[in-house]
Amino acid sequence: MTRVWLVERDVDSRNLVTTTYATPDGERTFSRQAALESLARRGGPTAAVDVDEDRLEAVGDAETAARYAAEAERVAASHDPDDSL
């Protein structure tokens, strides 16, 4: 299992939330979608999740990887993995 940290959250016009988690180096990500209402009932996404290596995807460009790495570092420094964000 690999720990990944919340780096991005998007809500579309249908109130579907896509959360993106990244490895601390920003090079690999894990994304999942949930209805906004469902997330609200659960208290929101957590700061980090542990996922199997085979569920991680490579980040396509260096700029995005650097941005994800910076955000993963910020979230990890200020939150426990189980904190709701």
- Whole-number average pLDDT? 95
Supply Rg: 12 Å
* Low-confidence sequence ranges: none
Strand runs, count = 5
Proportion of residues in helical segments: 25-40%
The end-to-end distance, rounded to whole angstroms, is 22 Å
How many domains, as an integer? 1
What overall form do the CA principal axes indicate? globular
Largest beta sheet: strand ordering: 4-1-2-3-5
Helix/strand order, N-terminal first: EEEHEEH
Give the DSSP E fraction (strand runs of 2 or more residues): 35-45%
Structure, explained:
It is a single chain. This protein has 85 residues and is an alpha+beta fold. It has one domain. Helix content is 28%, strand content 36%. The protein has a five-stranded antiparallel β-sheet. The longest helix has 17 residues. The radius of gyration is 12 Å and the shape is globular. Pfam families: DUF7967. This is DUF7967 domain-containing protein.
Tell me the layout of helices and strands.
Layout (H helix, E strand, L loop, with lengths): L1 E10 L4 E7 L5 E8 H7 L5 E4 L5 E2 L3 H17 L7
Antiparallel strand pairs: 1-2, 1-4, 2-3, 3-5
